[in-house]
Amino acid sequence: MSNMMIYGTTDKVGGNIESVWGHKMRVRTIDSSDEEVVKQAKADGWLSKASQVIEQIETQKLEAENEVMKGKLSSGDGNKRIKELEAEVKDLKAKLAIYEESKDVNGDGVVSYDEMEKDELKSLLDKRGVKYVSRDNLDDLIQKAKDSE
Question: Does pTM surpass 0.70?
Fold first, then answer.
């Protein structure tokens, strides 16, 4: 009778749970000369090398982590946040385009509403979606433009 060590993941039946190279696995000894016992052990998923079991354990861990990540993504939280951020970027780009259309007379990056004509201010306010009445005077339109930044 020649004994042989076989290894399996902890979900296997039989053997003892031991730590092999830092991984918990089941270990048992079988008679390697008994073909039926060897055949049954292979059919049950037992392996002759501990490294093969470690590979299985690591693969199972990665698959479990992958499922967790898929769950997080498919729950819609990630997609929902991405869509919110995309909408925010779109709004900011629109505001930037409107702002850049405004007059920057002295080139310091500050819009000089005081230098704008009444029609230009009305157009700017329309683009920004700011309400005004046609009889608003220039000072009122300038103040509304400043408030809408």
Answer: no
